[in-house]
Amino acid sequence: MASRNQNKPPRSPSIRKGGAEELFSDKRRRIGAERIEQQGRARPPLVAKTDAANDGGAAAASEASAECGAVEFTREEAEAVLNWKPKKCNPFDHKRKLEQISDHNKRLRLCVRWYMGVEEGCIQEKEKLQTDLESAQKKCIDTENEMKIKIAELDATISNLRADISSLEERFAKEVSDKLEATACYRKEKEARSAAEQMQASVSTELQKVREEKSAAEQKAISNEDLYKRSQEYNSSLQEYNSNLQSDLGTANRERKQLEMEKATIVENLSNVRVHNKALQDQLTILKASQDESVKQKELLANENRCLREELKQIKDDRDRQQVRVLALTGEVEKYKENTGKSCAQLDTLKLRTNALEETCSSQRDQINMLQQQLITEREKLKTVDLSASETRTLFEDQKRIIRELQERLAEKEFQVIEGEKLRKKLHNTILELKGNIRVFCRVRPLLSDESSGTDMVVSYPTSTEALDRGIDLIQSGQKYPFTFDKVFNHEASQHDVFIEISQLVQSALDGYKVCIFAYGQTGSGKTYTMMGRPDAPELKGLIPRSLEQIFQISQSLKDQGWKYKMQASILEIYNDTVRDLLSSNRSSGIDSSRTENGVPVSGKHPYTIKLDVNGNPYVPDLTIVDVCSATEISSLLQQAAQSRSVGSTQMNEHSSRSHFVFTLRISGINERTEQEVQGVLNLIDLAGSERLSRSGATGDRLKEAQYINKSLSCLSDVIFALAKKEEHVPFRNSKLTHLLQPCLGGDSKTLMFVNISPDPSSTGESLCSLRFAARVNACEIGIPRRHTSTRSIDSRLISG
Ligand SMILES: Nc1ncnc2c1ncn2[C@@H]1O[C@H](COP(=O)(O)OP(=O)(O)OP(=O)(O)O)[C@@H](O)[C@H]1O
Predict the structure, then answer these.
(1) Prediction pTM value
(2) Domain residue spans in the chain?
(3) What residue's CA is closest to ligand 1, atom 7?
(4) Strand pairing of 438-444 and 563-575?
(5) Atom number, ligand 1, closest to the C-alpha of residue 657
(6) 566 is in an annotated binding site
(7) Which CATH superfamily is domain 436-800 in?
(8) 301-316 per-position pLDDT tens digit
(9) By the number of CB atoms within 10 A of the CB, which of 176, 241, 486, 502 ranks highest?
């Protein structure tokens, strides 16, 4: 405050002490006073002065000038000075006006001076306040720093307090443990005290007894003393009595002796009493010593008891304090217990669940361990298996690669095979075409046992290179008739040799061509032997069973190339241009001899006719067609057909050789890989035996029969000839044989005719006719013009012989 007072702005002497602050405080007081005045109390500040100035005029001005620098203005006063207006007076009273104005100027000067002084004071005050502010800020910063330091100190204190709290807690825990120990100690001490009290009580009891005994001994000693006194009195009385009685010496001596004896007894008794008394005295002394000792012990115990009581009191105080704390802690503990009570239940359930889970976990852990062991072993196994698998995989990859290569090679080979098969078919067909779609083989059977060869050879075989195995010379009446065919089998040719030559045609049937093999020749020339052979001897099997066996063998082998074949067989015979189903189940019993067709008994059901389907191919309605899968089935069918044929012949009283036997196998092949389809037909025909009518001598039905055979054979040759020449008009279709075989004879069809020759000299004419017929068929294929102008001429020649 002293420094503040030193910084007071300079004031005019008229200004009261207190500086600008006091000025402002005065001003504030004044403004406050004005407010109070406005509220009720009127203050006549400078108004009176102003009025006085206004009214006083020059006097006021002079007064103001006299008090220059000592005038204070309020705001209103200053405003009044600033807003001063000259009073209305006589407009011509200039002197008065001038006085008023000069007075006002003086007041203005005073006011300005005052204001400047106030402003200067304000500036100083401002500077001072600034200084104070800076110092206050500095103080503030200092205080802040101090506060920070104090905060740090407080933090340290807090940490110390926390450490203290922790130490106190530790101490509390220690004290609790001490308390427990003290409680245990107290309990022990209590027990010791109770034991001591009991001991004290027993000692007190003993002491009381001793005291009682002492008192009893004292009374006894008193009584003994009384007795002694009385005894002494009695002795004295006795002495007096002795003295009295001395006179009576004798008696008295006796009495004295007696008395002495009594006295000795009494003395003895007295000594005994004394001894007893001494013993009692000793006992009393001992008891006193014991009492003293007991008293000392009692004092010691009392002191100890006192100490223990003090300690107990302290312990009790401690205990009370601890109990207060314990109560507080117990309250907290109760709260905790309340909180923990719920948690305990949850904890129990959780414990139960945890136990259960732990049990599960332990069992699962065991399982996991076991499984891990298994896993380890399995992993080891897996490793070994992986190794072997990788090796196997490598091998597998190699094998796969090899398989792929092999598959590629296989596909390539299959493609090559297919292409080769196509090529083979093409070449095979080309070869056959080159050989001729219509070929003629000649077979000469050996002489039978009942036939005589005679001296002249009927048949000879040219040995020239170009005619070797192809030429045959027939000698009749010394004249040699040379013929050339595609192949000539002499009498030594076996069935196998013959089949080798025709096996290619069988292959053609599987390739989808129509193949027709038939045997032509005179009766007994060996047609049936060639076609059917002898069923009892396998090596003598004919072309039909051999061809069918080959068909099934090849079809089986072609399965690998994707070919699937369906075979359907039918067997019929044509007798006198009447068709007979040889596989019909009612064939044997169904012949009604009363019903005939062309003189032939026919089935009771109906005669078999040949019709054309939508493609123009002939078929026989109701003909038995059997699906066949093996050559065995075929052989059984052939047996059935042979049986039906012989039964039919017997019933008709005809020989089976006079009917045409036609075995037809329709082959449907499909290749799913190459999507190829083939439809082949294999016709194996054993024609009826031709004969020279002139020589046979047949008449009636037999003649008609022979005429039919020759006619049908002539028709067949004509049809073959016409088809080979691709003539539009095919003659002689009225024969059921040609009608049935026509689709198998033209175009790409393969036709093979066996001409069977008998070496019997008696049938040389028939052989010549057969050879000529075969030569005509052979000639049409190779383009040789017919040597005969008309088939009729041949027929007529055949018929005329
Ligand atoms: N190549 C041959 N080797 C041995 N014996 C044969 C040969 N050809 C035919 N024969 C025998 O000749 C006899 C007549 O043969 P086969 O019955 O086959 O003649 P065919 O032409 O069928 O007569 P048909 O026209 O009357 O039926 C039979 O006993 C047959 O065994």
Answers:
(1) 0.50
(2) 2-160, 197-397, 436-800
(3) 445
(4) unpaired
(5) 27
(6) no
(7) Kinesin motor domain (3.40.850.10)
(8) 878 778 887 888 888 8
(9) 502
